[in-house]
Design brief:
The structure is a homodimer of 241-residue chains.
Chain A (H helix, E strand, L loop, with lengths): L6 E4 L13 E6 L4 H10 L4 E4 L3 H11 L2 E6 L2 E2 L14 H4 L3 E5 L3 H10 L4 E5 L4 H11 L2 E6 L8 H14 L8 H13 L3 H4 L4 H10 L2 H7 L9 E4 L2 E4 L1
Parallel strand pairs in A: 1-8, 2-7, 2-8, 3-6, 4-6
Antiparallel strand pairs in A: 4-5, 9-10
Helix pairs in contact in A: 5-6, 6-7
Chain lengths: 241, 241
């Protein structure tokens, strides 16, 4: 055993209880699309993103602070809201200097679970901010848990592929003894040069593209470093560190 | 959507609640080593295998019926028992016409969970009986859940690789819309010609081989069709169908 910090991958929120977060950085991963949207909004100048667990709460908070209420349920804009969970909705013209109050199916819930488990540090990651996440993890030198949001507790491959992308870049700095991480990196290395071509095999692709026509969202969410900022969670908000 | 039955892979007992078992065959998968041991004992003529959840129960039942009490905890023979969870312990000379009463860390527990969820049919599978399992699934034409036992609710790769081996053989007969199954088959196809060489990368390999020297067990557990019988669970017992 080395003195390097450990790195584990939690493949679903239903597996998060297996990992001690109290001395770990947890990376919240919801590639399609919450954590890609968070990176996009912050990269384009949003003051911060406030993740909330319900539509009424999103509306209430956004009204009280003059923010933008947004969110999705089951892949589409949530009833009662005008803005959804697409990273392409949050260009600089629209979001700069505003606060986004966001509610989503999976990512928001996982973040709340990490809070309940007293995570040392919570950050959010997806391909658009891959490098910022990796730089933070290697600089911080703490234990790491890569938390895949999945889909309603089911394993999904897009979150796993992003966990694999992180592992592929940072593995020398960590002590990794975790079958989930080995699998994630293997799947990433196998598909890294053709992520967009691989996407039609994913369950969630069908939900987003065949039902809602969101192919441009998919492409954005699978492109590295197009919104390369680091969202860190503190006092109820994700903001750029 | 086709009229074919569905196939899903549950990567951990902690994910089993996501799947409806009431009209499904569930394959209990605990490659290292419970379901390999079950196949081995039945192939070598055991009358049946009675899976139980505790050492005292194993001792009590084996005494009352004149069977062999066996089991492991944390990879080694459980305290109070003389026989463990190695498929190589159960050669024909020893086990023929006897009843094995077996308790293990993960496989036994998953089987009990499948019972609690009213699974339509419960069978047990591992590489030593790969063909028997595949033949049954394609003949039965019911929905299938491949249930990986994992390690104390953690994902493990050896169970996933076996799920992938099944999928690779039977996928044309099923409607598969499941990222776990896609991943499992991909990992299997990538490693199928070198399973034993791949094994040292697995978390559980270190537990079994570095701590207990069980390399021959590992090889047996990764060899297809060396104990090619189909263990079916009914009335508290696994016996050959």
């Amino acid at each position: 055993m080395s003195n390097k910090p450990s790195l584990h991958t939690s493949l679903s929120p239903a597996l998060l209880h297996l990992y001690d977060l109290s001395s770990s950085v947890i990376v919240i991963i919801d590639v399609f699309r919450a954590t890609s949207t968070i990176a996009s909004a912050l990269y384009n100048g949003a003051k911060c993103v406030i993740p909330v667990d319900s539509v009424p709460k999103a509306i209430e908070i956004s009204k009280s602070i003059g923010g933008i209420a947004a969110g999705e349920r089951d892949g589409k804009i949530a009833e009662g809201l005008e803005h959804g969970n697409s990273p392409l909705e949050y260009g600089r013209d629209f979001i700069e200097n505003k606060t986004l109050v966001l509610t989503t199916t999976n990512g928001t819930r996982l973040l709340q679970m990490a809070l309940d488990k007293n995570a040392d540090t919570i950050i959010s990651g997806s391909f658009p901010n891959l490098s910022a996440v990796c730089d933070f993890l290697t600089t911080e030198k703490k234990h790491v848990v890569l938390g895949c949001a999945g889909w309603k507790d089911r394993f999904n491959l897009e979150d796993t592929l992003f966990a694999g992308a992180i592992i592929n870049r940072v593995k020398k700095q960590f002590n990794i003894h975790c079958d989930s991480s080995l699998m994630a990196e293997t799947m990433y290395v196998k598909n890294k040069n053709s992520l967009v071509d691989f996407a039609p095999k994913l369950t969630h692709y069908h939900r987003l593209v065949e039902r809602f026509g969101l192919i441009e969202d998919i492409k954005y969410c699978l492109t590295a470093d197009v919104a390369n900022v680091l969202p860190v969670y503190a006092a109820g908000k994700l903001s750029v560190r």
